Amino acid sequence: MKPSFDPAFRAQFRELVLWRRDVRRFRRDPVPRERIDALIEIATHAPSVGLSQPWRFVHIESPERRTAVIKSFTGANERALAGYSGEKQETYASLKLEGLKEAPVHLAVLSDDGTHTGSGLGQQTMPETLHYSVVAAIQTLWLAARADGIGMGWVSILDPAAVTKALDVPKNWSLVAYLCLGLPAEEHLDPELERHHWEQRTDLKDVVFTR
Amino acid sequence: MKPSFDPAFRAQFRELVLWRRDVRRFRRDPVPRERIDALIEIATHAPSVGLSQPWRFVHIESPERRTAVIKSFTGANERALAGYSGEKQETYASLKLEGLKEAPVHLAVLSDDGTHTGSGLGQQTMPETLHYSVVAAIQTLWLAARADGIGMGWVSILDPAAVTKALDVPKNWSLVAYLCLGLPAEEHLDPELERHHWEQRTDLKDVVFTR
């Protein structure tokens, strides 16, 4: 039977989207594996081009592998900092951009670029839709996590080749996102980058057009 | 005040994710522009790398531009069909892959690749995260639409260069998705591609790993 979603649900869904946040301050309390895998189950109902379902979720439990990822972040972050100057550099240096050391859960999300699932339907003129499918799963996971009281952060300041190597996954899998999950140490409605004056929200009239 | 999401909301959120569906069969009833723009407003609260908010939403109202998009689909779809053979080709030919002619709303979603918003934060080693941010907004829009009883379909069988040209947008904007929206003519829990035996759901154990 077709479900219907009432105004109260819709209002709460909007609140969920607004409160999602990229979390970089985690409590160290462990989160049971089953709780994360239940979020992944929801994420696998995201749309995928041609039903290709290219997402591969890798729990990183090995301390050595985690250390390699943190090393990759540190190097990339130092190079990024060096690329800014003056006040912007000072602001950048003051931002907390990841929670890799504190987060109890590290989850890499990759795309199996060699998958035959879906038989290539919908990918022929826009092959990037394979990775886009993985991103749709990640955003679904993010919302499901927040609804369950779990915070998530997406770390993109790292060398994807170095991280993929540290993960020891098949050659044709490519890294789409490296995620940290855990209980948030604090909760905010506004993004960290807005709160610390890195950037502001864009007005709707500047992103909606008619042709 | 920090919101909390109870088990009933979480169960309904999961139902929303499962019932989302890529809709290709639309009723022709018009959908008011404000209703679509309210969905876009929610989508702009999606995560974006460095708060870059690169998403640009373009309502396509001109019949000439819509015709150009349909022409691009038709050509790409014929080429795709020719690439399959035997039974797979027959199945492909029987699938309804888009609702471009019936859908009352055509919405192109592009990335402003030249934006300075966010000052490049988080994009330096993984520049693809700019487009990924746009995809996160699209999946958010998709869920918000379904919660509001509106169906959405993502058409990727088209030539992005031809479509971008038909839209007459700034040179450094690139097409991430061409979407159709409207009231669904039918509702299904299972994907069209599963119902018509193109592909099946992958088992969870084949997509979750530990390292």
Automatic annotation (TrEMBL), chains A, B:
Transmembrane segments: none
Pfam families cross-referenced by the UniProt entry: Nitroreductase
Source species, domain of life: Bacteria
Domain Nitroreductase: 18-182
MF GO annotations: oxidoreductase activity
NCBIfam families hit by this protein: BluB
PANTHER family given in the database record: NAD(P)H NITROREDUCTASE RV3131-RELATED (PTHR23026:SF123), NADPH NITROREDUCTASE (PTHR23026)
Official protein name in the record: 5,6-dimethylbenzimidazole synthase
Species annotation: Reyranella soli
